[in-house]
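Kindly draft a sequence, keeping tokens residue-aligned:
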Amino acid sequence: MAGRFQPGTSRATVRGGATSAPVAIPRQVAADAAPCVRRWTPPWPLDLGLVLGPLRRGPADPTFRTTADGSVWRASRTPAGPGTLRVAMRAGTVEAEAWGPGAGWLLDGLPELLGAADEPEAFAPRHRLVAASLRRRPGLRLLRTGLVLESLIPSILEQKITADEAYRAWRLLVRKYGEPAPGPDTGMYVMPETRAWALVPSWEWHRAGVDNKRASTILRAVKVARRLEEAAAMPAEQAMARLELIPGIGPWTSAEVIQRSNGAADAVTVGDLHLPRIVGYALAGERNTDDAAMLELLSPYEGQRHRAARLILLSGRTPPRREPKMRRVDIAQW
């Protein structure tokens, strides 16, 4: 049927948070309601795949899509209600359409979503590898969604398990307890509202492979959702401190969230299984780097450590694997 959603064949890269956004071609979208439209021309190069890639939680994320016409789609629960946003680049201009009660909110925040609040000019490469990675990606900007819970809940799901397990849990829970995204028939879903998260039965968490510790952390978070959403307007350190008031949310989770919600350029992820070794190998040739050593290596980038780590991940220089991957444990089979 003409105008229906056409799933893209690309998939997100594991390292660096990039996702493929094909070259845009003219396309008409059939919708059950006329979208709100905005056009915006950024005064700097922009790579949609690099900028928006960190929002994608696996290749089958029900809240995120890329399509063959060069569009990136995301479904969000905004302060004004659910909304769907489609973004494409054509001749250096961003063309955006949005549907649903949250359409105006999404379009108002479009420039910051695409990195308008970012300050890459403050970044000075101190290593040849980082400088080369930066030169190859002039369109990289750090996004800012202004939304905390939409990054917090999947980040909690990703604690201490493999990415595939976390992506599966997010996909199952959003499809079962979320709602179809407004606008065209995309097959996308908006994540559940806070009350819906609070009403998920214990056996459904179990069926999705989510243990009681992570489920309980999510339930504690949704009870104070309004206070947590306020963190999007706070300086990074204050925002992280507010999130970490919730038992079960530590530095790893808070950094992963405010990198996206606040566009925090210095929020380097600590407590990660792989990142310290990748940074150590890329910058010092060391394969067994811990968090303390990673932070020491990144100290020349104080104020921009997350950007430096992202460029290192995008460089593709990773240590040879010498141990098995984290073992998958499917608690739904217990």
Summary: The longest strand covers residues 81-90. Residues 36-119 form one domain. The longest helix spans residues 163-177. The beta strands are 36-40, 64-66, 72-78, 81-90, 93-99, 179-180, 189-190.
